[in-house]
Structures are given as structure tokens and as C-alpha cells.
């Protein structure tokens, strides 16, 4: 008797070619449902509709069509067990040799603007996951395929093994099927949780699945293995970025690139902005009248640290900016675009990684940190700071220009590892103190880097000042204004010192620690 294959797919990529080869080269009989059967029949291939095979019509508007003993008995029967074979014979059921199923496009449906809960519910596949799980469970006796990418390897396995697919291949396909249904269920559970949860609350259960985008040469260090995984059925974020040139991305590159994306998202594209990063910390951030001048200001802020850095730009790269970028050794450049002339200039640096990520604003909706025995989950720090909500706590008040400078410094300090201090002037960073164990140390580093340029500059602190010593140190260096969250029991001491020394001080009421 000819072998029997069940084909029931939503994504019909490669379907006809697979069906044609199964029938003409390997002599399979085909059973299919709904639109899959129509597509196969339209190609002139013999196919039996599921409803004709089972003797039961599709009911409930197609909600029930493959949930039938003749389908699941044929999938789950153990070919080496006499009792199972007797049950098949007694009930007129043929064993299946191949199950090809992919699922209703749930993730694509919920990604559409204006999708309703009813739309989402109707795109929850029931029969498909049931068949995938059953076939994966019984992979000792049949093969399950859940992706068009598996079709050609399956056919090659048939050809290479005289029509008998090796167990190792079937096991690999079973693993893929279970991961496929796990990802599908996780997407549904996440959607329903988000749709029914209170705002600003985290769910009682949370899961994440990913598909390997690339194997990385190593992790943070050469002795650590690493891989890159993407989430969702459609590549987004860095998985959807276009790499125009350069070496393969490393683990550290990707970590730095995400830090770069977060900081440039602070600066709307209405004015050119650029940042240079090293080890996830900005070493220079600048704004300018042109993209080239913005980059030059970011680079000049700390040209020593910029060597081997990551550059992020909030506008497409033009030729003038590309010329500037080739002036030093950089690891990666990312921007929302890159014109042809700029590409030609950057191509001279063959190893330089140049990426285009059109949407630099959209990041992950959760931040995950693994710890022993579990993980921590939090919302990303995407708070949009508004100086109108700040409290000016000193006698001296800022001009409009000074307030804009304080906002610039505050946007940058948010993306510096705590304890963080940033000194800026005229929309350019002058000194950055990052990751110190005490705030006084970060102040000293930032002011030392700024040097004489600190005269008339702004100082931002990601956390409050527990004592007035940092305020006094800042004033002695020439700082004109300080912006900090406030909230210390000794805020009055810092305010008193600022008034005594003629400083402007704003308290934002928002803390931006970055651990």
C-alpha cells in the first residue's frame, strides 16, 4: 500500500513542490484539508480531502476538521505494536508516514493595527497543534514537518536512505515541532495576559522563546560559548537590521549596539545627534546643525576612548559624515539609513561593521536578568523626562537655554552605568564618570575629564547627592547648573550649598540607575 501523507498548512510556501515530489517520485497518497487541498488539486495533483477521508464534514465554520480518530489514530499508531495495528484495521484507519502542518498566523494577526480580541481568538489554531504534538510524540514511526525550510532536507533524507527516513532526522523534526507549538502557545498566552492584565503590572507567569539567529564565535570572553536568538515569527530589531558590510557581529558588538540604540532613542531626528560608546557606556554624545558636526562633537568629547568604539546616529549617513567616520578605528556604525555615496566611502574600511536599523526607537518591552534559580523581569526605562515637571529648588533659575542643556545632560546620564555623572555644554558631553562605587568618585572623574571646559557647564547625576560635597566640588570646577533626582534626607544641605555658591539646581523626582 502507498504511504500516506497529511498536509494541512496555513503558509503554503513550497507546498506544491513538496506535494508533487511526494506523489511523483515517492508514490505517496495525499490527504489535505481546506485551502491546502484546493492548492494541491489546482496544481493537478491527486489529493483526498480530510472530510472525504474521515467521512465527517468540517463543522463550526472550520473549527473542527482534523480532530477525528481516523486522523489522530493514523498519527499515533505504533507500527510495532500488534494491538495498535488491530485497532487501525478494525476502524479502517491508514497509518500516516508524514504529517506536514504549520499554524494559523496568530502573531501576524495580533501585529495588525486595530485587531480585535475576536480576530485574535479565531486565529488560535487547535487542530494544527494537536496534530504536531501527536506526530512529534510518535516520531519513532513517522516524520513531522512544521516549516517549509524542512521540506528539501526531508526529501533528501528520503533519497539518501532508500525511502526510509533515519530516526535521527525524525527526532530533530520532533524537537522542532515541540518548540514550534511551545512558541505558538507562549505568543497566545502573552497576548491574552497583556489584554487582560492591569496596566503597569507584571504577570504571574512569564516565558520567552527564541529562534537561533546566529552562532557567535564566543561570548564576552573567548572561553564562553554564545549564540544570538530572535523572538517572534518575523525578524525585528537587530534581527531585522541590514548589515551593509564588515565582519560578523560578536556578542559584545550586539550588547553595545543595543546600548547605542537606547541612548539615540532619547534624541528625536528633528536635530542631528550622535553618540560614541565603549562597553555600553557613552564616551561622547553630541548634537549639531549637520550629522557630520554632531558626530565630530561626539568624537571630540573623548577621542581617546572613541578608538574601537560603537557609533550610533539618529539620521541616515551622508557622504560628509562617512568621511568623518573613516578617520579612526571603529567596531560598528549604526544609523537609520546610509546613502549610496556614504556606502562607497565606508567600503574602504572593509572590516568596519555598518548596519542600517530603520527603527531605532522600538526596543524590548521587558528587561530580563538571569539569577541563580530564576530571573528578574522589569519594564525598560523608557520614561520621557519633561523639564516642565522638574522642581527648581534654588534661588537661581535657569534660562530656557540652560534648561535645554540640563535636559540634554539628563538624557545622557540615564544611559551611563551607576554611579553616573555627566558634564555637558552646548549639547556636547565634556566629562563622564561611570560605574564608580561612590558618587564622589564619579564626580571627580567627570570633572577631571572636562577640565577647564567645565566653566559654565551643566552637571547631571543619575542619583541624589547624599552629602553636599559633590555640589561644592562641582561649583569649584566652574559648573553653572546641576540636575539630579533629589530624594535624599540631606537634600536641604545640597540646596543650601547650591544657593551659597550661586548654582542652579533642578530636582527631577525620577531616578535613572543603570546597573
From TrEMBL:
Q: PROSITE patterns under this entry?
A: MGS (PS51855)
The MGS-like domain, residue ranges: 1-146
The alphabetical list of record keywords is: Hydrolase, Multifunctional enzyme, Purine biosynthesis, Transferase
Enumerate the CDD domains for this protein.
Answer: IMPCH
Q: Which Pfam families match?
A: AICARFT_IMPCHas, MGS
Q: In which pathway does it act?
A: Purine metabolism; IMP biosynthesis via de novo pathway; IMP from 5-formamido-1-(5-phospho-D-ribosyl)imidazole-4-carboxamide: step 1/1; Purine metabolism; IMP biosynthesis via de novo pathway; 5-formamido-1-(5-phospho-D-ribosyl)imidazole-4-carboxamide from 5-amino-1-(5-phospho-D-ribosyl)imidazole-4-carboxamide (10-formyl THF route): step 1/1
Q: Which GO terms describe its molecular function?
A: IMP cyclohydrolase activity; phosphoribosylaminoimidazolecarboxamide formyltransferase activity
Catalytic activity, EC:
2.1.2.3, 3.5.4.10
Hydrolase recorded as keyword: yes
Instruction: List the catalytic activities from the record.
Output: (6R)-10-formyltetrahydrofolate + 5-amino-1-(5-phospho-beta-D-ribosyl)imidazole-4-carboxamide = 5-formamido-1-(5-phospho-D-ribosyl)imidazole-4-carboxamide + (6S)-5,6,7,8-tetrahydrofolate; IMP + H2O = 5-formamido-1-(5-phospho-D-ribosyl)imidazole-4-carboxamide
* Free-text comment on this protein's domains from its UniProt entry: The IMP cyclohydrolase activity resides in the N-terminal region.
**Family, as annotated:** Belongs to the PurH family.
Name of this protein? Bifunctional purine biosynthesis protein PurH
Q: Which organism is it from?
A: Leptolyngbya subtilissima DQ-A4
Show the taxonomic lineage. Bacteria, Bacillati, Cyanobacteriota, Cyanophyceae, Leptolyngbyales
Amino acid at each position: 500500500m502507498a504511504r500516506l501523507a497529511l498536509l494541512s498548512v496555513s503558509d503554503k510556501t513550497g507546498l506544491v513542490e513538496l506535494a508533487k515530489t511526494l506523489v511523483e517520485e515517492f508514490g505517496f497518497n495525499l490527504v489535505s484539508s481546506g485551502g491546502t487541498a484546493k492548492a494541491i488539486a489546482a496544481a493537478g495533483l491527486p489529493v483526498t480531502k480530510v472530510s472525504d477521508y474521515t467521512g465527517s464534514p468540517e463543522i463550526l465554520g472550520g473549527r473542527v476538521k482534523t480532530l477525528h480518530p481516523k486522523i489522530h489514530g493514523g498519527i499515533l499508531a505504533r507500527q510495532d505494536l500488534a494491538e495498535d495495528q488491530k485497532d487501525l484495521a478494525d476502524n479502517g484507519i491508514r497509518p500516516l508516514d508524514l504529517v506536514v502542518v504549520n499554524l494559523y498566523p496568530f502573531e501576524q494577526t495580533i501585529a495588525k493595527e486595530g485587531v480585535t480580541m475576536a480576530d485574535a481568538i479565531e486565529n488560535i489554531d487547535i487542530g494544527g497543534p494537536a496534530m504536531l504534538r501527536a506526530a512529534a510524540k510518535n516520531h519513532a514511526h513517522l516524520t513531522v514537518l512544521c516549516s517549509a525550510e524542512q521540506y528539501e532536507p526531508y526529501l533528501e533524507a528520503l533519497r539518501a536512505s532508500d525511502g526510509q527516513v533515519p530516526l535521527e532526522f525524525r527526532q530533530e523534526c520532533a524537537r522542532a515541532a515541540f518548540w514550534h507549538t511551545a512558541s505558538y502557545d507562549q505568543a497566545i498566552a502573552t497576548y491574552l495576559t497583556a489584554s487582560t492584565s492591569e496596566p503597569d503590572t507584571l504577570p504571574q507567569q512569564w516565558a520567552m522563546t527564541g529562534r537561533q539567529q546566529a552562532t557567535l564565535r564566543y561570548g564576552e570572553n573567548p572561553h564562553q560559548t554564545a549564540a544570538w536568538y530572535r523572538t517572534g515569527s518575523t525578524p525585528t530589531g537587530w534581527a531585522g537590521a541590514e548589515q551593509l558590510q564588515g565582519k560578523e557581529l560578536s556578542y559584545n558588538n550586539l550588547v553595545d549596539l543595543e546600548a547605542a540604540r537606547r541612548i539615540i532613542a532619547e534624541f528625536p531626528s528633528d536635530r542631528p545627534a550622535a553618540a560614541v560608546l565603549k562597553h555600553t557606556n557613552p564616551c561622547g554624545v553630541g548634537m549639531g546643525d549637520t550629522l557630520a558636526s554632531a558626530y565630530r562633537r561626539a568624537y571630540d568629547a573623548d577621542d581617546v576612548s572613541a578608538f574601537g568604539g560603537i557609533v550610533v546616529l539618529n539620521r541616515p549617513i551622508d557622504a560628509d559624515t562617512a568621511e568623518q567616520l573613516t578617520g579612526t578605528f571603529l567596531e560598528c556604525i549604526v544609523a537609520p539609513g546610509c546613502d549610496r555615496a556614504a556606502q562607497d566611502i565606508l567600503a574602504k574600511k572593509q572590516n568596519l561593521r555598518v548596519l542600517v536599523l530603520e527603527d531605532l526607537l522600538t526596543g524590548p518591552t521587558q528587561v530580563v536578568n538571569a539569577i541563580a534559580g530564576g530571573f528578574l523581569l522589569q519594564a525598560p526605562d523608557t520614561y520621557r523626562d519633561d523639564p516642565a515637571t522638574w522642581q527648581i529648588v534654588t534661588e537661581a533659575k535657569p534660562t530656557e537655554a540652560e534648561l535645554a542643556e540640563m535636559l540634554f545632560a539628563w538624557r545622557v546620564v540615564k544611559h551611563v552605568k551607576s554611579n553616573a555623572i555627566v558634564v555637558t555644554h552646548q549639547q556636547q558631553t565634556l566629562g563622564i564618570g561611570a560605574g564608580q562605587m561612590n558618587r564622589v568618585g564619579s564626580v571627580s572623574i567627570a570633572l577631571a575629564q572636562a577640565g577647564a571646559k567645565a566653566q559654565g557647564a551643566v552637571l547631571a547625576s543619575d542619583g541624589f547627592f547624599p552629602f553636599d560635597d559633590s555640589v561644592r566640588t562641582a561649583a569649584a570646577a566652574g559648573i553653572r547648573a546641576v540636575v539630579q533626582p533629589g530624594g535624599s534626607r540631606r537634600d536641604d544641605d545640597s540646596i543650601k550649598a547650591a544657593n551659597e555658591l550661586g548654582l542652579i539646581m533642578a530636582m527631577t523626582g525620577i531616578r535613572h540607575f543603570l546597573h
